[in-house]
Design a protein that fits this description.
The structure is a single chain. The chain has one domain. It contains 4 helices and no strands. The protein has helices at 2-71, 80-95, 98-112, 127-141.
Length: 143
């Protein structure tokens, strides 16, 4: 009788473990999916900003060149240089290889500079800390 009960408990434990593993895999997939969506939104936002910046750059360039032709003073085209860098940076971010270079740099940081990523204070929060914070927030929102 005892072996039958222990065998059933073992099977239940294995089923629970398999269910937890499946749940963890789903959570990992969901987090990765949400991360990809956030990155896509950031890239779309950067591209939208590029369109506005490049339009501004084009209009200003025409105005600066017209001012230079009229006055023959180099000060009229002085903003051309920083604006060029700004638009080139945004283009590289949106359509160039900047995202790949950022990812490579992030991988180097994860491998070689792990201490730069430590959380301030006591590190990772505990369940007790989170419960305390949750109870504080709950009390303050009911006032």
């Amino acid at each position: 009788m005892g072996s039958f009960v222990s065998k059933a408990m073992n099977e239940n434990f294995e089923k629970m473990q398999a269910a937890q593993e499946t749940m963890l895999q789903r959570q990992i997939q969901m987090q990765n999916y949400m991360r990809e969506r956030q990155m896509a939104m950031q890239l779309a936002r950067a591209r939208e900003m590029f369109y506005w910046l490049s339009s501004f750059y084009g209009i200003c360039s025409v105005g600066m060149l017209a001012g230079f032709m009229k006055t023959k003073k180099p000060a009229a085209i002085a903003p051309f240089i920083p604006l060029t860098f700004l638009v080139a940076y945004q283009y590289d971010l949106c359509f160039g290889s900047k995202m790949y270079r950022i990812r490579e740099e992030a991988e180097k940081i994860l491998e070689n500079e792990k201490t730069s990523l430590y959380l301030p204070g006591d590190g990772l929060p505990t369940v007790k800390t989170l419960d305390n914070l949750r109870s504080i927030d709950y009390r303050s929102s009911n006032k």
